[in-house]
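Teaching assistant here, posting this on the class forum so everyone can see the example we discussed in section. The complex has two components, and the goal was to see what a joint structure prediction looks like when all of them are supplied at once.
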Amino acid sequence: MMRAIIVTPGVEDSVRLDEVGEPDPAEGSVLVETLMIGVCGTDREIIAGEHGQPPPGTDDLVLGHESLGSVLEAPRDSGLTAGDLVVGIVRRPDPEPCVNCAVGEWDMCRNGRYTEHGIKGLDGYARERFRLDPGYAVRVDPALGDLAVLLEPASIVAKAWEHIERIGKRAHWEPRRVLVTGAGPIGLLAALMGRQRGLEVAALDRVVDGPKPRLVTDLDATYHVGDIEAACADADVVIEATGAAELVFEVMRSSARNGIVCLTGVTSPGRRIEVAAGLIAHQIVLENDVVFGSVNANRRHYEQAAHVLAAADPDWLGRLITRRVPLERWRDAYESTPTGIKTVIALAASAESRSWQPPR
Amino acid sequence: MMRAIIVTPGVEDSVRLDEVGEPDPAEGSVLVETLMIGVCGTDREIIAGEHGQPPPGTDDLVLGHESLGSVLEAPRDSGLTAGDLVVGIVRRPDPEPCVNCAVGEWDMCRNGRYTEHGIKGLDGYARERFRLDPGYAVRVDPALGDLAVLLEPASIVAKAWEHIERIGKRAHWEPRRVLVTGAGPIGLLAALMGRQRGLEVAALDRVVDGPKPRLVTDLDATYHVGDIEAACADADVVIEATGAAELVFEVMRSSARNGIVCLTGVTSPGRRIEVAAGLIAHQIVLENDVVFGSVNANRRHYEQAAHVLAAADPDWLGRLITRRVPLERWRDAYESTPTGIKTVIALAASAESRSWQPPR
């Protein structure tokens, strides 16, 4: 038996720490000791009963899709050995895959029959040990250390940037300015990747306190609190990471000609808002604007993300992890604060005591 | 002196047939006799005083951006000779071009300093003769005959399809179904190009009378009057050609996962409509949807369009031209009817008397 953070999807505040059985060998040939998991808004939605789906035949779901673990056992031909640092991929294609899943692009699944660890039909990583098929375990450079817990959110942003660039190449493409809305983990990693591409970056958020402003300016990007016009008119690329629908429309209005707006933030459906009809069927057309959504990531994006993290300043990355909670105090980890960025839960005793910094 | 259809932009119903001077040799080295011009919604907006801009130093603009002419004079090194059928390109880059205009992608102009024949800062083709630089005259196969007046609208659709496919290739891309909303010239040409790609095509319009239904079914596509769900749920590609903002949102909602919605229709700005917030910051994200606008075309798209028209059934193309008006009755041409498709004005006596069909 081992400890796990469990929720009954659809039942508000059913989340609890409980004992569960060891991972079933049918889950995969690679056995991993969980070092830490990251917490994000999707976890909070599942806890609120608004999202999530248990595996078939049960009412409960082990939470956690952002992981970092250490290999305990792996088959000789898996490319992994005991002690390797690994991150588990979140989404898995259906055994009868669609045309996109069949070529490994499960982030673009066409029929919705995918599963997701800790979210949809598959137990997550918030348990002391888990098992994976080698194809869904991404080995990370040990030099990254604990910072590799950022790999999953970075994979989401790597996919967003990959699609932005592929869409940009529909025509001649020389972007200059990037606007990121929301300086949470996704927004900050998006700003990092914009700077890694040599672009001018502006970030817009609501808070003036806490580490966000300094994290942005330390990238030689500009931090703004206020309206979009003041932050960055004429952005060639906008990465929207708040999910605030009103902001989405403001962003569409203020982007440059041929601008590409990438939506990554999810808001709850239902509420209705008013928009100018001409924004859609006038400005978007006459300016060749693009608005697109990006969700999830496939293995290629996790590998891109590993390069992104390796090329970043480890001190800067470490400052994204603003809260580290031991498993015993797991409940604290799911409280959200506007100035905080990424909260992680340390599951292994070794992870609790290790320093933030990776070995140099 | 020669006859021209002239408007004073910004002044409602100022449109008139009048005498103007012969085209200035500074307009280009190729002198063209205008055979016919096509009429579209943009012309009607200009006539209504809602759009359009005269050339510098005058209040008046010669109308007409969809053209077909016959070369009268051309320099020896222009690649054109007297008697060639040519279509004039609509947009021209600024003498100090932006990075996109500099490589010939003036349809993606970044600074808005382009001009457009018959629309923005440049006289149009609704005059008995015009001049062009050879780079802005597209020679068309004489076998197309009068049908080449469809080249300009077809270039708009060729660009839309090029961008759809380039955007589609952000990931593995195997589209199956296409929905076209609005069975006017743009929608019908979009349906044609969808069928030329071997895709299933559905078209949605409001009329049951007139030639539209048969034109669609003659493409082995399906014609629908009613709601989008009934016409085509799960379209991988939607080409929206009505400009009705409410329809734009319905289309965004009903498209398939990874769906690409291309907006080509322009509505007047100002009016406000209500939409579900979750459509934007929920469904678009979770389904990797793309919505983009497409306007205008560069020379490459005119050449793509020439291939499209050459590969189509000339009888079918001829049926798109539902009204042919001699210059003397020009005013009739600007009246819009819901069952009509493309109206053309025959400027040259030869064009008035020629048959619809191209020589076989």
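For the discussion questions: Residues 155-293 of chain A form a domain with the Rossmann fold fold (CATH 3.40.50.720). The mean pLDDT of chain A is 93. Think about how each of these relates to the inputs above.
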